[in-house]
Write a structure and sequence with these properties.
Elements (H helix, E strand, L loop, with lengths): L8 E7 L9 H17 L3 E7 L3 E7 L6 H18 L14 E5 L4 H9 L1 H4 L5 H11 L15
Antiparallel strand pairs: 1-3, 1-4, 2-3
Length: 153
Amino acid sequence: MPNTYTQIYVQIVFAVKGRQNLITETLREKVEKYMCGIISNKKSKPLAIYCNPDHTHILIGLHPSISISDIARDIKANSSKWINENKWIAGKFSWQEGFGAFTYSKSQIDNVVKYILNQKEHHRKTTFKEEYINFLEKFEIDYNEKYLFEWND
């Protein structure tokens, strides 16, 4: 795309189906690396990623030819297929439908990277539900709680 210049930073958040704690510490690093490969193959740049046992945060420098929905779909579909092919969990692994996507300016990137990489510590104090609803409210996104992720309350 000649003469196209962009700066698109997106944090994508999605959850394991049934909000099961399936991404173990051993599996986490492998899944993160695999997802980074998917993102890179979509002409985009992975800036930060953290797979919690039951949900994932990814910060991406998004290529302008790729839609957020397409890259989220590809990350989720390809990673779940890969996890299942390698039989790293008992039963079938899948992600819940849907995702959250939140955009940032360049000046916010360092803080977002630190936030994502600090997920383990962050979730000692805050549940995923509290975190996700906080994102929706901070970004002033209208939502119906009926259509949010399944929660383990």
